[in-house]
Amino acid sequence: MNKQMNIAIDGPAGAGKSTVAKLVAEQLSFLYIDTGAMYRALTYAALKEGVELTNGQALNHLLNGLTITLQHEKSGVSVLLNDEDVTEVIRNKDVTANVSLVSSHESVRLEMVERQRTLADKGHAVLDGRDIGTFVLPDAKLKVFLTASVEERARRRYEEHQAKGIVSDLEQLKNDIAKRDELDSTREFAPLKQAADAIVIDTTTLSIPEVADSIIELAKERAI
Length: 224
Known about the structure:
Enzyme class: transferase
GO cellular component, one term: cytosol
Shape: globular
Order of helices and strands: EHEHHEEEHHEHEHHEH
CATH architecture: 3-Layer(aba) Sandwich
Organism: Halalkalibacter akibai (strain ATCC 43226 / DSM 21942 / CIP 109018 / JCM 9157 / 1139) (Bacillus akibai)
Keywords: ATP-binding, Cytoplasm, Kinase, Nucleotide-binding, Transferase
Mean pLDDT: 93
GO molecular function, one term: CMP kinase activity
CATH class: Alpha Beta
């Protein structure tokens, strides 16, 4: 693929965006940009510093003093916050419970979007998030919207927690995911929304490789 191609993968929590995006980027030798990890890093910093999460101005001030780096290695993507490796800690329950609130502030999203666009401008890239195709990269060559039932998304999250030794309740996860869907899709600025020209893939009964293969084929078609 000689011409620059950016692939936007959007969808709700637990739809498989990050896992699929990583695999697609790896198979196509594209840069993978985990936009969700960037918001999680800010949320972690805000909780650590005691910044009021409902105060968008304070959060944006904090963000302006942070360097968030997505470091690509053979083992995957590490997230560095001012040179501190926060790859694992930004996935904890406190961050997960508050990242939607932090990311809902317009000033925060505008700053993050500028950083994400700068990264994407460097070459072929795969970005996953909730507003990539509608706001971050509205001119992306390929836009995909992944979805799955709440039950399936909760089951996946439950299995992830079990694999990491995290105690969780399946019913509570269902409630948490449904709540996050509501928060993400109803926020005033750049909400979770399917782009009009996005291709929808229901991942409920599909494996990660199957979803990735579908996107890779679409990317190859768009590159012709």
